[in-house]
């Protein structure tokens, strides 16, 4: 069986933002991968030329975009 197609849902110029977005998806049960071309982290300035790409499976793309596009509500603003 061929692998499921992967879709780029976001690009990032820095790894911190990319890791946070990936963690948000993982916390919601959506597997993802980061594709980057920065010489294995030895040349991080290459991320400006070749942004880090966050990819998910086609079946998860809609849910992943919804998670990343939904603003976070601080706990003190949640009514009991």
Give an overview of the whole structure.
The protein is α+β, with helices and mostly antiparallel strands and 80 residues long. It has a single domain, classed as Alpha-Beta Plaits. It is built from 3 helices and 3 strands. The chain has a 3-stranded antiparallel beta sheet, with helices on one face.
Structural class: alpha+beta
- CA radius of gyration: 15 Å
Neighbour order of strands in the largest sheet: 1-3-2
Q: How many β-strands, per DSSP?
A: 3
CATH top-level class: Alpha Beta
Low-confidence stretches: none
Largest sheet: 3 strands, antiparallel
CATH superfamily: Hypothetical protein rpa1041
Give the domain tally.
1
Shape: globular
The succession of helices and strands, N to C, reads: EHEHEH
Strand content range: 15-25%
Task: Let me know the average pLDDT.
Answer: 84
CATH topology name: Alpha-Beta Plaits
Cα-to-Cα separation, first versus last residue? 48 Å
Number of helices: 3
Jot down its keywords.
single chain, 80 residues, Alpha-Beta Plaits, 3 helices, 32% helix
What's the SSE blueprint?
Elements: E1 6-12, H1 15-27, E2 32-35, H2 46-49, E3 52-57, H3 61-69
Antiparallel strand pairs: 1-3, 2-3
Question: TL;DR?
Answer:
With 80 residues, the chain is of the alpha+beta class. The protein is built from 3 helices and 3 strands; from the N terminus they run βαβαβα.
């Amino acid at each position: 069986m061929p692998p499921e197609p992967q879709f780029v849902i976001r690009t990032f110029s820095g790894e911190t933002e990319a890791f946070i977005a990936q963690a948000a998806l993982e916390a919601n049960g959506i597997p993802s991968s980061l594709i980057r071309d920065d010489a294995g982290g030895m040349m991080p300035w290459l991320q400006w030329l070749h942004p880090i790409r966050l990819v998910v499976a086609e079946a998860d793309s809609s849910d992943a975009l919804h998670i990343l596009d939904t603003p976070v509500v601080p706990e003190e603003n949640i009514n009991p």
